Each structure stands twice: as C-alpha cells, then as structure tokens.
C-alpha cells in the first residue's frame, strides 16, 4: 500500500502530488527564461534606445560594400549607349537590344540568386550573404572592362558580329552585379533587426553610391581634359578616338571597387539570418521573461510572399522608383548633347551636379524619414521629381537652367530610393530568412521594366543615327517617361497609405493544445504514439516541415492550467505541446511552428 501511495505521489495523481506538481509548475513559469523562444520582431523607433547599435566602422564597411556595383552601374547606365553608338558606331536599335539583354539577364538572375542566397550556408565561414557577394565580385571583375573596350581582333567587323562578341560579357557582368546587389541588400536585414538602424545603413549605402557616381563623372572629366591637353585639340564630339578613355575609366572603376569590397568583407561581422534571429532578444523595461519569450515571428517562404498583396504594392513602388532614376540617368547625357546642344564634357559635369545634390540629400534622408515618416517623405520626393520633369521640358538650348534641373533630379532620386528600400526592409520585418528573395523579386521588376523601356525608346527613335529629329525626341524621353514612372509610384503610394507596411494580411490564430504532436528542436515533426497505455509512449520524428506563412501571434498570455478531470498537469510528463497556426477558416489547419517546453504551461488568448 505504501509503495502504491508513493507511486501515485511521484506520478502526481495523489492530492499531495497534485499540489506539489502545481506549485512546481507555477514556480517553473515564474522563473523560466524560455531560451527556446527569442524576440525576433524588428523593434520600432521607440525601442532603439535599447538596441545594441552598430559601430561607425561597421556602418562604413557596410556602406562601401556596394561601391563596385555603383561604379559599374554608373558607367553602364550613363555611358553604355553613348559608347556603343558613338564609339562602336552601333545603330540605335542594336545598342538598345544589347542593353535589353543585360537587363533581362539581371531580371532573371535576381530571383534565383535571392532564393539560393537564402538557402545556402556559405563558404570559408563568410556566411551565405558574403559568399554570394564574393561570387558576384569575381564575375564583375572578369567581364566589365571588356564592355567598354573595342572588340579584340574584331573592331572593324560588322556591328552584328561585335554584338555577338559583347553578349557573353554582358550576361556574366549582369549575373555578378545581381549577386552582389541582392546579397548586400539582404545583409542589411541580417546584420540588425532595428528599423531605424536599417534606414541608417541604407542612407550610408546611398551616400557611397553618390560618391561612386561622382567619382565616375569626375574621372571622365579628368580623362577628357588630359587628352585635350596632351593632343592640343579641343573636340566637342565623342568619336571612336575616345575609346581608350572609356576603357581606362572601366579599369579604374574595377580597381577602386574591388578594394572597397574587401573592406566590406573584413569590416563587417559574418552572420546569417539564423544568427540574427537567435541573438536579438532584448530586455525591455517592464517586461518579464515570459513576456519577452512571447514575442515570436512567423516564417515566410517564397510561396508565402506571393500571397501577400503588400509584396506586389511595394514591388511596383520600387520598380517605379528605379524606372525614374535609371531612365533619367541613361538619357540625361543624350538630352544634354542632342537637345540642349552642350559640349561633350557636359555629360560629366551635369551628372556630377546631380549627384552632389543626391549626396547631400542622402545625408539628410534618415532624419527626414524619422521626422516625416516613410510615406510623407516619399510623397515629397515624388513632388520634387515631378517639378524637375516639368522644368526640363521647357528648357531652351544652351540654357544654364539645366543646373537647377540636375539638382532637383538628384534630390528626388536619392530620397525616393532610400525611402523605397526602407519600405522594403519594413515589408521583410523579422522574416530575414527569405529577405534575399524579396529583394531579388523587387530587382526583377526593376531590371525587366528598365530593359523594356530602353528597348522601346531605341526602337521608336526617329532616325538611325543623329538628326534634327533627335532634339525633341530626347526632350520627351527625358521628361515624359520619368514623369509617367512618378505617377505610377504615387498611385502605389496612395494604395499603401491606409496600411501598415509589414503587417501581414492573414489573421493570426492560436489553436487549442494538441498533445499528440509537437515540433522537435531539429525542426522535424515528432509525434507520440499512444497505444492506450500512458507508460508506453513511443516518440517518432519525421522529416522537417516547411516554414509557415504568418503562423504565430506576436504576443500571448501564458498561464498555468490544471486538468481537473484527470487530476494532473496537461501534457505528457508535465510538458505541454501546442500547434500554432493561422487560417482563413476554422477548419483549415496550418503547419506546426513550435512548442513551449515548460511544465504545466498553456497558451491563452491573443493580446
């Protein structure tokens, strides 16, 4: 009898056992730190004072990690068409087709790179983001200089043969450029979970983008000047004789860019998304361990993102932003030479003015975003861009008013880009496990739209080479198409006004306890086979489960629960197992996300 009472007491079925079990579980709840659950939601501005901010050197190192891309992109968008048409003597449509191949290659590569960047583990302890960044760096190094050099052994060949020669270099360059861009953008979400810190990183990144563009235009101006001084001639037109200048500029850009990329590799910490998720738990004033542990986030796969309407809205906003910036940049030199009738050094001077304005704006962008908010800041930038388009349409030949237009264009582009990237980071939120896919999808829309736009502009060009019809044509191209992109961006912004970016459109739900199924620490589904005998439980683990779409609540009330009917704490061996899921109807079951491995604890209502 004594033995039986002792067994009942140890099992928790006797009155003394029940009391001791209850007290033990209450104490367990009070003292638990819930190490298995971490606070993974990005903190708002009010929480930033608790954040462990990045050092200034880390911010600097991150900012220079895109300099190689910025230098090469500046040459690609500003000077590729001029080089092909004026130096290689390509026809307009053929030059447009080569740029289209590059843009389409980039568009097709970005989702693939984004997906792979989220899935791979990386090499040499670099982490997955830096690994893809390094791959991109090698591809850009191996191909870019050939794009701005005359065809080796075939410079006198027909344009179509040279077109075939340049195509592989274009594809390799765009693949490398996309790999570097996507990995660098997604790294900003991995390195910090704090919203304002992410805006700061984007501002620093954009500042170095502007500096890189200024360097390109300044270097080209210097190369033109040195050539004129050395030859004793002052040519106003670009010709095949200027080929060495573009080649030398490309070599200099590669050298500077690679140097800064290695500063990025050594100056920033190596981290994956998982590292970020496991290290961002921050104690906030007034919260106990239970409250901190209840801040959870839902996992998002690429399929989950495709079901979110905000994903498409932000993508359209980002696409419109890039379309405005890139088309303005591509055709600004043509506008200056053909429409305004300026000398060839103008293609370096006026873009330089535009990027000085952009640089100053980027320094203020973080403060403006913090003071006005994302949406108001973006609306302000759209207004400035629209003013520049209207002004440029009415400028007369040889007018110095181009300086004012260049300032407004740079200001609008910088503010729009920083804010749209910050909105994309807000959309990703704590779901950094698929952040590269999101940035890749955004870039896909950007590259494809820009490629199609350039092809159509070149196709509808009124003449094969330059003629009097070019004067009004480039005026319309430089104002109407960027203006249309601004209208599209403003419409998307209006659609986002009533919404909180990053809040998912699926309602969250916590289902009742399912004691027979829970998730193991190895991310597999573990079930307890029960043959009717409580003492004969057999645990089996199945394959890992796919990530859930918005499967978990942000905060839950935790309380102890006593199963009065059975006289012992809910769950087998004092452990509760819960299925956390979402659904549009009560009957739909979602995937399993996690378990609270604490004695006698149940999840209550959503707060």
From TrEMBL:
- Location of region: Disordered: 584-607
Q: Does the keyword Transferase apply?
A: no
Tell me where the transmembrane regions lie: 131-148, 163-187, 208-226, 246-266, 346-365, 377-395, 401-424, 480-497
GO terms in the biological process aspect are:
carbohydrate transport
Keywords recorded for this protein, A-Z: Membrane, Transmembrane, Transmembrane helix
What CDD domains does its record include?
A: MFS_MFSD12 (cd17491)
User: Under the cellular component aspect of Gene Ontology, which terms does the record hold?
Assistant: plasma membrane
The organism's place on the tree of life at top rank: Eukaryota
GO MF terms held by the record: symporter activity
- Which Pfam family is one of those matched by this entry? MFS_2
State if Chloroplast is listed as a keyword: no
Query: What InterPro entries does the entry give?
Result: MFS_2, MFS_trans_sf
Family (UniProt) = Belongs to the major facilitator superfamily.
How is this protein named in the record? Answer: Major facilitator superfamily (MFS) profile domain-containing protein
Please tell me the species this chain comes from.
Elysia chlorotica
Q: What is the lineage of its organism?
A: Eukaryota, Metazoa, Spiralia, Lophotrochozoa, Mollusca
């Amino acid at each position: 009898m004594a033995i039986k009472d002792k067994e009942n007491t140890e099992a928790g079925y006797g009155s003394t056992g029940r009391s001791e079990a209850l007290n033990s579980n209450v104490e367990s709840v009070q003292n638990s730190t819930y190490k298995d659950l971490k606070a993974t939601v990005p903190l708002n501005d009010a929480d930033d004072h608790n954040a462990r901010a990045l050092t200034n050197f880390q911010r600097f190192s991150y900012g220079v990690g895109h300099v190689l891309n910025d230098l090469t992109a500046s040459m690609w968008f500003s000077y590729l068409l001029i080089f092909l048409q004026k130096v290689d003597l390509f026809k307009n449509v053929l030059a447009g087709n080569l740029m289209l191949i590059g843009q389409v290659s980039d568009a097709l590569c970005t989702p693939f790179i984004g997906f792979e960047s989220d899935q791979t583990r990386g090499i040499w302890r670099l982490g997955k983001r830096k690994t893809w960044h390094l791959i991109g760096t090698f591809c850009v190094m191996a191909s870019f200089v050939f794009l701005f050099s005359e065809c080796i052994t075939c410079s006198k060949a027909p344009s179509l043969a040279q077109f075939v020669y340049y195509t592989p270099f274009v594809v390799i360059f765009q693949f490398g450029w996309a790999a570097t861009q996507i990995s660098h953008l997604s790294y900003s979400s991995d390195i910090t979970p704090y919203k304002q810190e992410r805006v700061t990183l984007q501002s620093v990144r954009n500042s170095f983008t502007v500096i890189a563009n200024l360097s390109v235009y300044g270097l080209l101006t210097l190369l033109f000047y040195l050539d004129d001084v050395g030859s004793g001639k002052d040519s106003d037109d670009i010709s095949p004789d200027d080929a060495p200048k573009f080649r030398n500029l490309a070599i200099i850009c590669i050298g500077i860019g690679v140097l800064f990329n290695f500063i990025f590799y050594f100056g920033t910490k190596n981290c994956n998304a998982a590292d970020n998720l496991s290290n961002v738990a921050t104690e906030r004033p007034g919260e106990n361990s239970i409250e901190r542990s209840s801040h959870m986030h839902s996992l998002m796969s690429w399929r989950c993102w495709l079901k979110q309407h905000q994903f498409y809205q932000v993508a359209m906003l980002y696409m419109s932003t890039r379309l405005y910036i890139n088309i303005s940049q591509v055709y600004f030199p043509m506008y200056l030479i053909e429409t305004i009738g300026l000398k060839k050094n103008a293609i370096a001077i006026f873009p330089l003015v535009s990027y000085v304005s952009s640089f100053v704006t980027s320094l203020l962008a973080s403060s403006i975003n913090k003071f006005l908010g994302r949406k108001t800041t973006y609306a302000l930038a759209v207004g400035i861009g629209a003013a520049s388009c209207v002004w440029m349409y009415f400028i007369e030949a040889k007018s110095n008013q181009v300086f004012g237009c260049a300032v407004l264009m740079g200001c609008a582009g910088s503010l729009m880009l920083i804010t749209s990237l910050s909105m994309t980071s807000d959309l990703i939120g704590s779901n950094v496990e698929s952040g590269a896919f999101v940035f890749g999808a955004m870039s896909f829309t950007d590259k494809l739209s820009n490629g199609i736009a350039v092809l159509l502009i070149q196709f509808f060009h009124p003449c094969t080479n330059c003629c009097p019809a070019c004067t009004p044509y480039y005026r319309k191209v430089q104002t109407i198409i960027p203006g249309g992109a601004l209208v599209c961006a403003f419409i998307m912004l209006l659609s986002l006004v009533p919404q909180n970016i990053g809040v998912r459109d699926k309602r969250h739900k916590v289902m009742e306890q399912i004691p027979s199924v829970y998730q193991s620490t190895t991310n597999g589904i573990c079930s307890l086979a029960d043959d009717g005998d409580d003492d004969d439980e057999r645990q089996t683990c199945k394959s890992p489960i796919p990530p859930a779409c918005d499967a978990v609540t942000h905060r839950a009330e935790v309380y102890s629960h006593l199963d009065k009917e059975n006289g012992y704490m809910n769950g087998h061996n004092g452990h509760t197992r819960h299925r956390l899921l979402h659904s549009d109807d009560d009957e739909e079951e979602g995937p399993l996300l996690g378990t609270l491995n604490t004695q006698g604890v149940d999840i209550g209502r959503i707060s």
